[in-house]
């Protein structure tokens, strides 16, 4: 048993009257001890559920990020001329609405904007559709690439994917606790704003509850992250909704910690107020392939809505109308489909050369 961890557990688990928040250093220490197995299973389970009940602070999230930064993998920058975008999406996937972020990533990369994604397989508590399954359906299998090969793909194509079972196996044991507890611990909140990248980055993350947005801002501020976009998105992702106004917080410039609030109304830009429901993985992949072929449809509308916003937000386009027009051009002229083909060829060539030990 770790006596040090027991003291940290006592702080977060002592109830409303005597419990205390952890400092940033303490939160980093607790996270490292859980990942490294220095705390006992009983201590880890108790900590995760107690911390969820207490709710994390922005300072605690910053400490957790410090631990991930120290122990986790990182992609290296290359000469792209642009800050990399890190898309933070819930690891336990989607169950209700069709994800569009792989198309968004391809679209951005097609115009020279590097994108980093991260995640794992079907994971608790939702066991929803993860990004890795969508990429595999599109012919891109990230699961066998070691970090050095992923770096090569990132440099060749502008898209990188940190696959946790391969690149950050220290997190594997934590998923067993999440399954047994049946609730997301604060680590799941922190992962949305984790940026596994060494260089200048623009962190984009989704959230569901307004208090999470506030915690994100504090944590990012303590971590001196000046470029961020926080989206009240579909199922906690950074996919913009079409059935309601998109509520977005963003640093007022890509070099300032000042925060602006943005409200984007889909019908103001000619979009119907309808989200695309999630069917089977095969149906989603077929619909994405139709989008990449330039075919009209509901998922194409979602792709344009998101692509237009992120082209504008990344500074490639000067405003939303220009971003929407550019997104339509890229999706209909074959540029995004060509990027997928390039990505698939890059990943497959490197996967063939990789022989697991």
SS summary, helix count: 16
Radius of gyration: 20 Å
Report how far the terminal alpha carbons are from each other.
Answer: 33 Å
**What is the percentage of strand-forming residues?**
5-15%
Question: Overall pLDDT, averaged?
Answer: 94
- Give the total of beta strands: 7
Output the CATH class name of the largest domain.
Answer: Alpha Beta
Number of domains: 2
CATH topology of the largest domain: the name is Pyrimidine Nucleoside Phosphorylase, Chain A, domain 2
Domain Glycosyl transferase family 3 N-terminal: 6-70
Keywords: Amino-acid biosynthesis, Aromatic amino acid biosynthesis, Glycosyltransferase, Transferase
Protein name: Glycosyl transferase, family 3
InterPro entries: Anthranilate_Pribosyl_Tfrase, Glycosyl_Trfase_fam3, Glycosyl_Trfase_fam3_N_dom, Glycosyl_Trfase_fam3_N_dom_sf, Nuc_phospho_transferase
Would you kindly provide a written description of the structure presented here, covering whatever features stand out?
Residues 6-70 form the Glycosyl transferase family 3 N-terminal domain. This is Glycosyl transferase, family 3. It is built from 16 helices and seven strands. The chain has 357 residues and is of the alpha/beta class. Helix 12 links the parallel strand 4 and strand 5. The protein has a seven-stranded mixed β-sheet, sandwiched between helices. The mean pLDDT is 94. Helix 1 packs parallel to helix 4 and helix 6 crosses helix 14. It folds into two domains: 3-54, no CATH class; 84-337, Nucleoside phosphorylase/phosphoribosyltransferase catalytic domain (Pyrimidine Nucleoside Phosphorylase, Chain A, domain 2). Helices cover 49% and strands 10% of the residues.
């Amino acid at each position: 048993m770790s006596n040090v961890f027991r003291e940290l557990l006592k702080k977060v688990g002592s109830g409303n009257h005597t419990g205390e928040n952890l400092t940033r250093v303490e939160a980093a220490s607790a996270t490292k001890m859980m990942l490294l197995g220095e705390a006992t299973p009983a201590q880890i389970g108790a900590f995760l559920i107690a911390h969820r009940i207490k709710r994390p602070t922005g300072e605690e999230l910053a400490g957790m990020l410090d631990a991930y930064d120290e122990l986790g993998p990182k992609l290296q920058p290359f000469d792209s001329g642009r800050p990399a975008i890190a898309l933070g999406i819930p690891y336990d996937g989607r169950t209700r609405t069709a994800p569009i972020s792989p198309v968004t990533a391809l679209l951005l990369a097609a115009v020279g904007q590097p994108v980093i994604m991260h995640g794992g397989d079907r994971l608790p508590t939702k066991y929803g559709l993860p990004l890795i399954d969508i990429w595999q359906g599109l012919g891109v299998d990230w699961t066998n690439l070691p970090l050095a090969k992923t770096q090569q793909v990132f440099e060749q194509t502008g898209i990188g994917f940190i696959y946790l079972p391969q690149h950050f196996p220290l997190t594997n044991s934590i998923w067993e606790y999440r399954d047994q507890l049946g609730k997301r611990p604060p680590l799941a909140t922190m992962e949305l704003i984790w940026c596994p990248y060494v260089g200048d980055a623009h962190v984009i993350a989704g959230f569901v509850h307004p208090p999470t947005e506030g915690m994100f801002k504090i944590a990012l501020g303590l971590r001196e992250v000046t470029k961020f976009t926080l989206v009240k998105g579909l199922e906690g992702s950074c996919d913009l909704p079409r059935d309601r106004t998109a509520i977005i917080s963003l640093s007022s410039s890509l070099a300032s910690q000042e925060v602006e609030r943005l409200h984007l109304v889909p019908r103001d830009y000619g979009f119907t107020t309808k989200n695309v429901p999630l069917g089977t993985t095969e149906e989603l992949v077929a619909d994405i392939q139709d989008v990449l072929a330039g075919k009209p449809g509901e998922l194409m509308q979602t792709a344009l809505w998101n692509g237009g916003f992120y082209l504008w937000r990344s500074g490639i386009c000067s405003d939303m109308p220009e971003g929407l027009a550019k997104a339509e051009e890229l999706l209909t002229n074959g540029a995004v489909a060509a990027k997928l083909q390039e990505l698939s060829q890059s990943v497959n060539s490197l996967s063939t050369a990789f022989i697991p030990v």
